[in-house]
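Pilot study result, target chain (85 residues):
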Amino acid sequence: MEPETTTNIAYIVMGITLFAMVWFISQRAMKNRADVLEASAPKIAGEDVLDGGARHPQQFDEPDEEALEEMAKLLGDEDESEDEA
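Predicted structure:
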């Protein structure tokens, strides 16, 4: 084969490879962009799933004295009990 023919074949193969790489990278970039837009879209009530919960939910079954005093203060029961005494 002539060196000119070999050079032309190498250029054609490199051109096809370059086109394939550019196409692959652009497809990947568009997919990544779509994924990011979907992930950062505003959440619609009822469509998002909230994970988690209380670590020890049984701790809320019975309130302690401090919580009872705070509830009484918020409800205004503390003022009434002082008036009765």
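One observation from the pilot: The first helix runs from residue 3 to 39. A full batch analysis is planned for the follow-on phase.
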